[in-house]
Amino acid sequence: MPWCPKCKNEYYEGIKVCADCGVELVDSLEEWEKTEREAKEAALKEQMAAFAEMLTEPEADEKNAEGAEDITDPEELEKEMAAKAKKAMEEASRGVYQNYEEKAADNKSSAYTLIGVGIVGIIVIILCFCDVIRLPLSESSRFMTLGVLGAMFLFFIVMGVVSMKNAGKYAKKAESEKELTKELEKWFMECVTAEKIDDGLFTEEEADFSEEQKYFKRFDKMKELLKERFLNLNEGYVDRFLDKHYQDIFGDSK
Prior knowledge:
Layout: H1 29-56, H2 62-68, H3 74-93, H4 100-129, H5 139-191, H6 194-198, H7 211-229, H8 235-250
Helix pairs in contact: 1-3, 4-5, 7-8
């Protein structure tokens, strides 16, 4: 069954575009999220590698030396690189996964809006039919216009009811997800430490990396430990959980 990568709603076979978001559907949310994250990580690693090579490259001739005078102080340049890396990491991990509580709230909000607009529209149409509200239209045009608008507002109400049902469904799943999160948090805080994660993780060269550069290897190690303990977790859920609790282990080093 196809899924919307933005709102995470499931659709019937044959539907290609999400009715709510207008984005193209994908066959698997996990594969899509994995591909998105890998692409962002690869781009960031390539950027950091190129920058590190530029910093360590010796001045080959006087021309390079003259050009280096225009470059910012090395310490300032390193700070700028770290800031860009941090921003890229935050963008890579932001908004990938929407939990069931957020889905329930979004669907409930949409339901109230659609039903409210639909009911107000139907009331206005009834008032127009009763000539309480007069439209500057001929008789035939008036009935045709009101008929089309009536069908549209009825559709709003139907979609609102569907969204309300989805909100209820997601609310039930949110309770289970909260219990899972509590269990993960308890295990995570008891069993996962910075020393355990960093033990044997970095080579001698990598030991001098900045905290931003170490982030990805640490993140992968944390994910590995989590998946060894808890099976069949959603990839996006794991990424969001770890990104939220990374600072619990490494403080403000991210």
